Amino acid sequence: MPAHKLAPDIPDAPTDVLAAEQAHLADSREALRAMRAHAQSLSADAAGDWVSQQILQGLLDQRVAALADHPDTPLFFGRLDRADGDDLPSTIYVGRRHVHDGTSRPLVIDWRAPVSRAFYQASPAEPMSVVRRRRFGYHGGALTAYEDEPLAEGGRIGPSRILTEEIERPRTGPMRDIVATIQPDQDEIVRSTLAQTVCVQGAPGTGKTAVGLHRAAYLLFTHRERLARSGVMIVGPNRAFLSYISSVLPALGEVKVDQTTVAGLLGEHAAPEDPEVAAVKGDARMAKVLDRALWLHVVKPEEGVVFTKGAYRFRVADYEVREIVASLRGTTRYAPGRAALAQRLAHQVLVRMEQRGESPDDRVQDAVARSKPVRRLVDAVWPKLTPEQVLFRLLAEPEFLARAAKTDLSPEEQERLLWAKPYRSWKSAKWSAADAALLDELADLMERTPSLGHLVVDEAQDLSEMQLRALGRRCRNGSATVLGDLAQGTTPWSATTWEAVLAHLGQEGEVTELTLGFRVPREVLDYAARLLPSIAPGLAAPRSLRPGAGSLTVREGGEVLAAVREALGREGSIGVIAPDALVAEVAGTLAGDGLAHAVLGPDSAEEHRLLVVPATLAKGLEYDHVIVVEPADIVDAEPRGLARLYVVLTRAVTTLTVVHRKPLPAQLTA
Ligand SMILES: Nc1ncnc2c1ncn2[C@@H]1O[C@H](COP(=O)(O)OP(=O)(O)OP(=O)(O)O)[C@@H](O)[C@H]1O
Q: Which Gene Ontology MF annotations are present (predicted)?
């Protein structure tokens, strides 16, 4: 058991140690203030011209903002005392950022620096030159406790109370960072190299989301310049989830990371669609169909070009045009191919001009490429197209679909794809979420999609193959962190293996597993795990760090109101998770009883202690007290309803109350 000292309540706390650490905190704060004052005193006037001045001023402002001290956020949370033997300092304080004094002596070292790694990884078996690790406990911004772990030979370390207190702390508001308590297996993932794509399978509450966000912060610190150019992006399941995680990266000093949803990335199309149709549209076989559909628009040229200049006519014969088109097909994307066709035709005209003794230059070639006869031919042979035009034809014209699908889709699948009632034109078409991925694939066949430096994809098990391809395009010159849980797959096209997910993403990567839960009490997790044999038979039952005896209550015929009132008597957030169809009724019941609450919507960043949450929006979120209403209805509402129930049952941090009138699903009572 580590030494754990709390002052002033514990009489034997050596307050001199605590006082010395508090003094170091005060010194570090003072030094940070001085660093900020210095940054504020720098002037952008030194820059030569006005534009450079503006750019420099922007950078200086950013630096000043980054050096702000947030009194409630601990400046450091750990200390390493190191054995001599290298030229590193013998004492290191690990915190959220570097702080140094006037002589450049480091007072606090960023948690992401290589030397800080030992704070997360050192153990008596492998002390990494550390003789003692000290963890600090804070109350508000005040340093109130410390805990020592001896790592020198023969040292024994037990469970950390500071970690336990951290994970037991009631949840209020948005997700917090876990920088002070990252666990060794999580740290391995956080610090894996930029070139490496990692895929993390993890049971509910094992910290996948937290790890993904910390990895983004780590990579930005380690490859600042490169990633500032290419960019890092976080992709999550919906806006409610994004707003829940939105403060983590800013708390780690990283404000320039885009956080978005697949819809935010591919287009907010949401026309309702039969899941069976969406499943065909999401299948990777569609990639071939779209490729053919696009290139079917390039037709065999039957005519040549005649370009008239003054009294002369320059002719490119039909067979020459055919040769040019044939040589371009398959070697270029669609849009540059079109431009190249015009240029190649113009070049042939120029060759004829030269044969006549003229000496035309590049400008003439451009003018010929833009001339009417060339444009007319290009439009006829290699027409200008948008993704919407191509997809419209595919979903509206059975013969065109059949030509594009060949044997890749069965006649039944083709039948399913066609709109039952076609729209009048591509302009009036209403696209679905699955269409968005198809449009994106077509857009990439036309023009290359730029790649980011790194992509973090959360809840990746729910993405269709075509959506994964779309995300893969956005990291094809970079790498990815892929996070998810096969047991929480709730879409009809949910992944069954991570290898397949990586293949569709176009990334080679290792699959690792996080197995220890930090959220859900053991009793609740064991209860939810009864569903696992039915939804993901290959996965081992999850383990929880938190015993949580008495955390589970199942009430047949129970009242939601009574459960809510009970929860209101305790500390922390409350989520009443109901089948989507019952949300209004549940909210009405609460309102009828005068209980202030909010209803979580797909786009809402509702912050309220008492929230009514539709079951389909609960993924990724957590509440201290969860009340699950009518599990049987949650299961019956969708094809993968049991997986949805598993998600819903695993949102609780402290207590889970299940209230039901209908019989519980058999898998839960078995
Ligand atoms: N090392 C840690 N120290 C303290 N808290 C942690 C740690 N790891 C995870 N947590 C906490 O556990 C909770 C669950 O983490 P997170 O949401 O990242 O899990 P997840 O694996 O993404 O869960 P789910 O699959 O259910 O979405 C969060 O409150 C997170 O802050």
A: 3'-5' DNA helicase activity; ATP binding; DNA binding; hydrolase activity
Cβ–Cβ under 8 Å, residues 44 and 56? yes
Taking the centre of ligand 1 as the mean of its atom positions, its distance from the CA of residue 409, in whole angstroms, is 41
Residue 153 is inside which H or E element, if any? none
Residue 208 C-alpha to ligand 1 middle, in angstroms?
A: 6
Which residue segments constitute the domains of the chain, with CATH numbers given?
Answer: 3-168 (no CATH), 185-260+454-500+508-517 (3.40.50.300), 275-294+386-446 (no CATH), 305-381 (no CATH), 522-669 (3.40.50.300)
Structure tokens at 88: 């590193």
Higher pLDDT, 97 or 472: 472
- In 88-155, at which residue ranges do the beta strands (DSSP E only) sit? 91-95, 99-100, 106-110, 130-139, 142-150
* In the predicted structure, residue 12 carries a pLDDT above the cut 70: no
What sign for the dihedral angle of Cα 84, 86, 90, 95?
Answer: negative
Q: Whose CA is nearest to atom 14 of ligand 1?
A: 205
The C-alpha atoms of residue 190 and residue 194 are separated, in whole angstroms, by: 10
DSSP 480: E
Q: Annotated binding site, which residues?
A: 202-209
CA-closest residue to ligand 1 atom 29: 519
Q: In angstroms, what is the span from residue 519 Cα to ligand 1's centroid?
A: 6
Cα separation of 77 and 110, whole Å? 11
Which residues have CB under 6 Å of ligand 1?
A: 166-167, 176, 178, 181-183, 186, 202, 204-210, 485, 488, 518-519, 620, 622, 650
Task: Give dist(CA 557, CA 538) in Å, integer.
Answer: 34
Predicted-assembly ipTM surpassing the 0.85 threshold: yes
What is the CA(204)–ligand 1 centre distance, in A?
Answer: 8
Give the atom of ligand 1 at the shortest distance from the alpha carbon of 212.
Answer: 18
Burial of 357 (0-12, 13-18, 19+ CB in 10 A): exposed
Distance CA 252, CA 216 (A): 10
Tell me how far the alpha carbon of residue 446 lies from the centroid of ligand 1, in angstroms: 41
Residue 54: predicted pLDDT: 82
**Residues annotated in a binding site for ATP:** 202-209
C-alpha 168 – ligand 1 centre gap (Å): 12
Residue 475 has pLDDT above 80, yes or no: yes
Other beta carbons within 10 Å of 299: 11
C-alpha 141/C-alpha 145 separation (Å) is 12
Gap between the Cα atoms of 438 and 390, Å rounded = 10
Pick the closest to residue 74 from 144, 2, 149, 17 (CA basis). 144
Q: Copy the structure tokens of residue 335.
A: 């849009």
Atom of ligand 1 nearest to the CA of 651: 26
Tell me the one-letter amino acid at 455: L
Q: Which atom of ligand 1 is nearest to the CA of 171?
A: 29
Of 147-156, 391-400, 548-557, 637-646, give the lowest mean pLDDT range: 147-156
